[in-house]
Amino acid sequence: MSVNVNIFHYKSLESTNKTAVELQPWTHLDTIVADTQTAGKGRFDRQFYAADGGLYMSVIIDPARIKIKLQHCTAAAALAVIESLTPVGIQGLKLKWVNDILLDGKKICGILTGCNFLAAKPQKIVIGIGININIPEEAFPDEIKNKAGSIEYNGDKIELAKTIAINLDKYISLSKEEVVKRYNDNLSFVGCETTVQDYANNFEKITGKSLGVDEDCYLMLETNDGSIRHIYSGEICDN
Ligand code: BTN
After folding, report:
1. Is the CB of 183 under 6 A from ligand 1?
2. For residues 81 and 131, is the Cβ–Cβ distance under 8 A?
3. Cis peptide before 98, with omega less than 30 degrees from 0?
4. Given the CA of residue 15, which atom of ligand 1 is nearest to it?
């Protein structure tokens, strides 16, 4: 079955997520793309650096179309990005829990999923994806220079955005078990000692061996006393 993706392409937007949230009427897989953003947002309302030339996009997902749970959507998007970039020659991409994609240990993509609710019922899911493309190291602001990377890609960005949206549609249609399995297959730091800041637990820093994610996409850490912590909101600390 062919999948219909409507692309709305802008030179510059405050944030593709904001435009996607505001878009009315909308249909499943409507995709907002911008060449740059003036107020791109990351997790926890942080600023997301968006150099001109990257791919900044937000895909609208109809909650009725997902077979996975809402908390698996970021994982589905990350897998869709990897699946779309691999055939254009970007090899060796790895996931960093929960929403980052790394190339050679540096973040080349961040994902931000949001959903609005009416009477506790999800109405519209917006999945924002920012990919650094052809950005020279020296262009990144000092505070992210040693962590941010970029892919080299000279193909058509709109075609790439379309492919990502189509692959995303595929991953949200899989079972959560399949998404979790594929996410774990691509996850970095599994089996390694990892420190995570647990945002749901007073920002406590927990160190342990990463066991990958559980069925809910929570990160499992085996601590020194042998217990396993399941962390649902947090961030892996840089070494
Ligand atoms: C993160 O790394 O914390 C998530 C970054 C998500 C950035 C993308 S860029 C396209 C979309 N629009 C936004 O304002 N944010 C997302």
Report:
1. no
2. yes
3. yes
4. 14
State whether the beta carbon of 128 lies less than 6 angstroms from ligand 1.
Answer: yes
For ligand 1, the distance from its centroid to the CA atom of residue 112, given in whole angstroms, is: 5
> Atom 15 (ligand 1): residue with closest C-alpha?
41
pLDDT band at 53 (very low <50, low <70, confident <90, very high): confident
Q: What integer is the mean pLDDT of 124-146?
A: 95
Q: Please state, rounded to an integer, the average pLDDT across all residues of the chain.
A: 96
| Amino acid letter for position 21 | V
Residue 190 has pLDDT above 70, yes or no: yes
